[in-house]
Amino acid sequence: MKVMLSGGGTGGHIYPALALADIIKEKEDDAEFLYVGSFRGVEKNIVPKTGMPFKQLHVQGFKRSLSMDNVKTVWLFLKAVKQAKKMIRDFQPDVVVGTGGYVSGAVLKAAQKLHVPTVIHEQNSVAGVTNKFLAKNATKIGIAFPDAQAFFPKEKTELIGNPRAQEVAKMQSDFSWTTYGLSDDKKTLLIFGGSQGAPAINLATLAAIPAFNERDYQVVLVAGPKRIDHFMDLLKEQGKTLSDHVKVLPYIENMPAVMQKATVLVSRAGATSIAELTALGLPAILVPSPFVTGDHQSKNAKSLVDAGAALAIKEPDLDGNSLVKAADALLQNDAQAAAMKGQSKQVGITDAGDRFYALIKSVIKN
Ligand SMILES: CC(=O)N[C@H]1[C@@H](OP(=O)(O)OP(=O)(O)OC[C@H]2O[C@@H](n3ccc(=O)[nH]c3=O)[C@H](O)[C@@H]2O)O[C@H](CO)[C@@H](O)[C@@H]1O
């Protein structure tokens, strides 16, 4: 099987594509892949490290206001479609899979024009702009939340979950907290704000540091590669220090392995993070980002809160006190954490990768 993958911009679009590739490789060891990403998104840092062949296109997003930049966006898009067509003719994929982000718009549009089967994956409960644009001509559409069905033609849409969930659920983690100078015998609160870190979560954690320094559980904040320096500057300015059991990191490469060893998670309500934490049944405190299309993170979070699988704190209500209160509620109350774990597992779709693979197989012409 020859599969062209495209998804870009943020980790939430990239990791599902990579998880799908791993599942295909497990089933067909002669499978071939080509990943097409953008020059701007984080895929340029993530994909080459996997050893997968990687090509890039220049694309950019639309501005919401009237702007000359939008003329450039259209011009870049048309140019990218042309270049993508050449990549498709050279690689001759059996199927082209798009997991969201502007670059996947150009790549799948090119495939649709060349009559190559296309499958799109929507990770959120609210469909993204690119997937809505591609849906009409897509061969099949895989969704991760039942609510997303409303955005797509019913006859070609299937609830498959997020393949990253299966990857995380199956992984045998040999990660040890000693990697970060912590103990494997203590409970650990892992805090991260999506793949890029979140200022509001970082600031609340900063305010909570004196309390966390006093707790008997460990705390790890992943501040984000571009945000950690600012966090450390503020920490110094405020005259605060980190105790031995509180750590701040820029990014965690092997997040699925690390998540397996966490006790409670504080996270944005990005689709991939949710797929991962429900696959593990990890009790979570979700802080939905208010800055995303259609407020989809609040809807993602609500579906978990309604199921008793997570707590949520709205960003305006998030501060040091509310963060510590929610963390204590789960880390100092084993019964509540255990109940949430059970509910979270109920929500997770841990065979999402197998379902995605079946969907891909169903569109390939023999
Ligand atoms: C701000 C924004 O537009 N966010 C969107 C983006 O999420 P974004 O990419 O920020 O977040 P997601 O929660 O979907 O995914 C984050 C991914 O990054 C990984 N990770 C994170 C931190 C780290 O240190 N290491 C690491 O590997 C997580 O394990 C996860 O796999 O795409 C998602 C999927 O369409 C959407 O639901 C989000 O609303």
UniProtKB/TrEMBL annotation:
Residues 3-142 form the Glycosyltransferase family 28 N-terminal domain. It catalyses: Mur2Ac(oyl-L-Ala-gamma-D-Glu-L-Lys-D-Ala-D-Ala)-di-trans,octa-cis-undecaprenyl diphosphate + UDP-N-acetyl-alpha-D-glucosamine = beta-D-GlcNAc-(1->4)-Mur2Ac(oyl-L-Ala-gamma-D-Glu-L-Lys-D-Ala-D-Ala)-di-trans,octa-cis-undecaprenyl diphosphate + UDP + H(+). Transmembrane segments: none annotated. SUPFAM superfamilies: UDP-Glycosyltransferase/glycogen phosphorylase. UDP-N-acetyl-alpha-D-glucosamine binds at residues 10-12, 124, 195, 252, 297. Coiled coil: none annotated. Residues 188-353 form the Glycosyl transferase family 28 C-terminal domain. It holds the Pfam family Glyco_tran_28_C. Its EC number is 2.4.1.227. Pathway: Cell wall biogenesis; peptidoglycan biosynthesis. It is found in: Cell membrane. It is a peripheral membrane protein. Belongs to the glycosyltransferase 28 family. MurG subfamily. Cell wall formation. Catalyzes the transfer of a GlcNAc subunit on undecaprenyl-pyrophosphoryl-MurNAc-pentapeptide (lipid intermediate I) to form undecaprenyl-pyrophosphoryl-MurNAc-(pentapeptide)GlcNAc (lipid intermediate II). This is UDP-N-acetylglucosamine--N-acetylmuramyl-(pentapeptide) pyrophosphoryl-undecaprenol N-acetylglucosamine transferase. It comes from Fructobacillus parabroussonetiae.
